Every structure is written in structure tokens, then in C-alpha cells.
User: What shape does this take?
Amino acid sequence: MSRTTDRRGGRDDSLRVVIVDDSPFMRGLISDLLTDAGVAVVGEAGDGAEALSVVAETRPDVVTMDVEMPGMGGLEAVERLMAETPTPVLMLSAHTAEGAEVTFEALERGAVDFFSKPGGEVSTGVSRESERLVKAVRSVADADLAAATRDRRERENAGSGSKTTTAGVSTPTASAATVDGPLTVVIGASTGGPNAVERVMSALPMADCRVVIVQHMPEAFTSRFADRLNEASAYDVREASDGARIGSGEALVANGGSHTRIDSYRSGRLRVKLEEDDSQSVTPAVDVTMRSAAEVVDGPLVGVVLTGMGADASEGIRAMADAGARTIAQSEDTCVIYGMPKRAVETGSIDEVHDLDDVAGAIVGGVA
Assistant: This one.
């Protein structure tokens, strides 16, 4: 049954959250973890239909939404919420390939971000990740919901794209002729990034160019993310593996379980190495990939920082700029979370700031 509560204990400035999960145990566990962190749980629901009612009544700052539920599941509930009571949603997804597929669909329907539940749908494993869960809830609360749902609205208006066309985006007129020699591109993103990266890659014209993408995402999700980018863009995209090489017209997505370092660059082809580095605050880290690109690549180089929370990429983009790379940040107005681009701009190392739809053209020099 759904219920509305107020556990703020007089903390009127506290973040307000509704928890949606068909398991009473998981609702209680998540509620306790958030409450202990000073987050106000103002409502709970056991399925999507109940969630719509509770959200309309309590008007929370964030909804945590389970995917698999009886009756109205998480996907339909997200879509209905965006239409009826737009609210930032954090999906709670199984840490599996199947969970990844459903999660990406939820992001397309308007969810802002996701939290992969360790140990399965019903598990105390979430307790071990309480800090990460609270951080995710707080970041989603700061999201620009209009930016998060824009892709879905434009897809509905424009229809879906294909391998060589762009969905809802004006394709840049840039071509290989605008690039003086083989171009290496490193793109970094976090919260809001899956849709933003797909938008950039789907609009990026085929050129003498190879791309490395670092998206903050668990290991079980990056392979499917690469598949989606492969389907959406003109580039051949795959998940990075140790020793993988890419040339013109190819792209790699950093593996979620490790850091992707550019190890060598010969005859226009990149070779990457996967490595562990516990000193990094996130895995995979954009900083690691960007710093290695600055050290290794001796041809034309572009660094791109898209929407995301935190400071990852600020050190890397500075290293790339110092190495002579051209550097681009996504504009605040089009970011779901203006964290990573903001920190990158604050370094003084960003050459250009562009709205999301102009980033692809800017990469290959097609935007003035």
C-alpha cells in the first residue's frame, strides 16, 4: 500500500523523496538509509500506479523508482510522471545486462539517472553502497528536468533515427576536409551523459576521426551503452578491452570496471590499456583517459566535457589544453547537471562552450 510520511523531524530544508518499490523490505531499507543521511522520505509506493498518486500529493524533490514491479512497472510510471507531475527520477536497476537495457529505456523516457543495486532486486547489499545512493539522490535533485526530458520530446516529434541518420538533431555540414590530419576525440560525461553522448555521436559526421568515450557507469552497463551508440551513430563503437585498437571511423566506450588509458598512438591508430587505480574518486575516470591522451597523442586532439556531477575531467582537460588540444564544454543551459563542465570552465582551459546540439559540429570544426 502507498503511504505518505514526513521523517524530517523539523528539518524543513531537507531534501524530500518518495520511494517506489514493490518490496516492503527494500522500501524500509532505502528509507532508513536516506533518513540517516538527513534526507526526508515523504512518501512510499508499492507500484507505479500508487507512485503517481503519492507524487501528486507530496510533490517531492526526487523519486527513487524500482524497475520491475507488479501492475504498472517503473518504465510506464516514469513516462506517466513526466507527463502528469514532472519530477526528477532516480531508477534503481539490477546490476545485470538485462537491467542495463531497461535502464537505458528509462533514461529515454525521462529518468535523470540510475543506481545499480548490488546483490539483486531484494538485497541488503544496498546498505554497503549507502553513500553512493545518497550522493545519487542529491545529484538527481539538482538536475535540469527540461534538459533531461528534451531528447524524448524531440524523438516523439521527429521520429526515430537509424545507423546513418540523426534523430531530432540537425546534422552538421562538417566533413573530413575541416580536419588537418587524423583527429582524436576524448569525450567525458556523468549524470545526464548517456543521452547527451548519444546525441553527440549520432550527429558526429564520419571523418578521419577516432573517439574515446568515458561515461561514469558500472561495468554491467558499458557494453550495452557501446551497442546503443553503435546503433545510433555512423561510427563503429565497442566497449574498450585491454589492448584494443581503434582507427578512423571507430570509437571505444571506457569499460565500467576499470580506467581506460591511451597507451600508444601509431599510424593514426590508438591502443588502449585497462588498469586499476584506487586513487581515483570514480571509475572509469575521465581524468585518466584525458591525461593519457595528452601524453601520447601527437596529432590533432579534441577534449569534450559534457553534463555531469563532480570535478572529474577538470585535471584531464587542463592537461589536454597544455598539450595543445582544442577543448570544448557543454553549455550550462543544455546540461542536466552543470557540474563537470562548470569545473572544466573554471580551470581556464576550455576554448569553446557550445549548446549540446552544436558540440558534434564543433568537434570537427563545423561550428564557428
User: Anything to note?
Assistant: The two ends are 56 Å apart (CA to CA). The CA atoms of residues 250 and 365 lie 19 Å apart. The longest strand covers residues 259-266. The mean pLDDT is 87.
